[in-house]
Amino acid sequence: MTSNITLEEFEVTAKKWLDENAQKKPDISEKEAEWGEGEFSVAVFHNLTFEEERDLLQEAAAWQMAKAKHGYHAITWPTLYGGLDLPIEYARAFASLESGYITPSRHETFSVTTRLIAPTVLHYGTDDQKNELLSDLFSAKTFCCQLFSEPGTGSDLAGLGCKAVKDGDEWIINGQKVWSSGAQFSEWGELIARTHFDQPKHKGMTAFMVPMDLPGIEVRQIRQMSGGTSFNEVFFSDVRVPDRLRLGPEGEGWGVALTTLSFERDHSDSDGGGRAGGKWSQLLGTANSLDLLDDPQIRQRLMEVYIQTQIQRLVNRRAADLRKSGKPPGPEGSLGKLLWTEGMKLMSDVVSELLGPRLVADTQTWGTYEWGEHVLGAPGYRIAGGSDEIQRNIIGERVLGLPKEPDPYKGLPWEDIPKN
Fold first, then answer.
1. Contact 247, 124 (CB under 8 A)
2. What average pLDDT is seen over the chain?
3. pLDDT (tens digit per residue) in 292-330
4. Which of 1, 44, 207, 208 is 20–30 Å from 93 (CA)?
5. DSSP H helical segments within 290-403, as ranges?
6. Please, what are the domains in the chain?
7. Looking at the whole model, is its pTM more than 0.70?
């Protein structure tokens, strides 16, 4: 693969590879493909046993590693780390082709590893860290989790208190993290810890890449109301991490965290309707199967969802165009994230109106009761990756130039700020 390959040549080669390595989806109409047969899933979070979730991840990793042999797993990323270093149009073309084939289901831990942590390491890592980690992270040979949130800080990530104290060439880490997706399956974790206690909270943090099998690390699964155990608590008790695994300069962990979060909020490769939580076509199919399409109020509500998905798609495409320079996503990622969570809430509201009691009472009708997993899971993403309130603050301050919210503790050392 060379950087001067035309898009048409790339598509021909990619389609040939897909024909040889995956099974094409049945050539039937969209209505038949979306309705009445097979599994109907609109879940936001998985409701699986530990073994089922592990197997799903292994299937996704196997497909990613197969693509990695030809660079299809990281089309826009540098060739030095297994990518093809091609423009984003090539990645879109491959994704469009791939959508016509039967491939493994994705998992949040897979996305965190390949879409959040790997690009962060590419941006901040030393040459040794990149050589050690990037190929395995991009190819999903190795999984990684985020170790950011803490029980006592809520959306105020900068107030975190997990401590890392330097001891020669090592750091001794003590504290607790929570809501760490996929920590039970991860070999690595991106940790943000407090290293300078006499500095303002945004300036006293440092980032690390931490092997999850180090002595003193304990992972406990959290049962979600949707049934699964994707999230975890992670405890650190005198965990020793070598300084060579520090990600970025000492005291600049806030910048590393923002970079990872910007990737998390960036939905620039999304079409506005195909991410976790179901698609517009599934909502339309549900309404059609219940013979509700002649109701003018229902039609109005369905169009609200459709318009929302189209706006989201256009905003995401604009963000993708802005990313052509190769820089990390900026504050525009907050707009995409906010539109996504607002869209999921709107879809939850509309499907609840469509289904009524069938949302909570299983009538064995295909494509109805399953929506309960969406309704239970959607509120979680109003918090994940920064709450909706945080996204609005970012847009207001960094995009619109509005004054910052008053902060009575601004500039105070972290150790002097009252704790929860």
1. yes
2. 89
3. 999 999 999 999 999 999 998 888 777 766 665 555 566
4. 44
5. 296-322, 332-355, 371-377, 388-394
6. 144-256 (2.40.110.10), 260-399 (1.20.140.10)
7. yes
